[in-house]
Design a protein that fits this description.
Blueprint (H helix, E strand, L loop, with lengths): L1 H17 L4 H22 L7 H10 L5 H23 L2 H27 L6 H29 L5 H12 L1 H18 L1
Helix pairs in contact: 4-5, 4-7, 5-6, 5-7
């Protein structure tokens, strides 16, 4: 059955080649025709580019959150989790464990933010995307290395406290997205 489908496909290729058209060129031509149709549809629907003022208004209504603001939020939450672990348990080892869990999030995130802010000048989209993936990989590798090294660095390590510090500090990303959404809504209502 698979051979029949392959033969049919090969037969179509042979037919198009016999007609004097390369199949690759024919497919590219169909893709360009499809793109032209999309442009025509956009023009028919009354699409018009934004003016400078309209684009600025959209930028103001969708404020961005700096990576450094997120890292600062993570540092603050990490300190709070460490203090809470110490106050609630009365044990210094719990505070160290929770603090190290928070540090396993903050330190790689700061390195990631530093790496991305240094490459902001990359004008090509592919280079920027590749840089993002490289720094994300560095961040993940550093996080895993810190978690693997935790038992050697923290005496009487409490994995539960470490995990609590890690997870709560990691949730700052979600809080930053929520605050961005709330700020966006308050600007719209203003």
């Amino acid at each position: 059955m698979a051979n029949a489908a392959t033969d049919a496909t090969n037969g179509a290729s042979v037919k198009s080649t016999k007609q004097g058209q390369n199949p690759t060129v024919q497919n590219a031509s169909r893709a360009l025709d499809g793109a032209d149709d999309l442009v025509d549809e956009a023009q028919d629907e009354g699409f018009k580019p934004l003016t400078r003022e309209e684009a600025e208004k959209i930028r103001q209504s969708n404020p961005s959150v700096s990576l450094w603001q997120v890292v600062a939020g993570q540092v603050g939450v990490g300190v709070l989790v460490t203090l809470a672990a110490w106050i609630l348990t009365g044990q210094l080892r719990m505070a160290w464990s929770a603090g190290y869990g928070a540090l396993a999030v903050v330190l790689p995130a700061a390195l990631f933010a530093r790496g991305l802010s240094r490459q902001k000048s990359a004008m090509q989209g592919n280079a920027a995307l590749a840089g993002f993936f490289v720094w994300e990989l560095v961040k993940i590798a550093l996080t895993v290395a810190m978690l693997v090294a935790a038992p050697r660095l923290i005496a009487e390590l409490s994995w539960l406290a470490l995990l609590a510090g890690f997870v709560v500090t990691m949730k700052v990303y979600w809080a930053a997205m929520w605050f961005r959404s709330a700020r966006k809504d308050s600007i719209k209502n203003f």
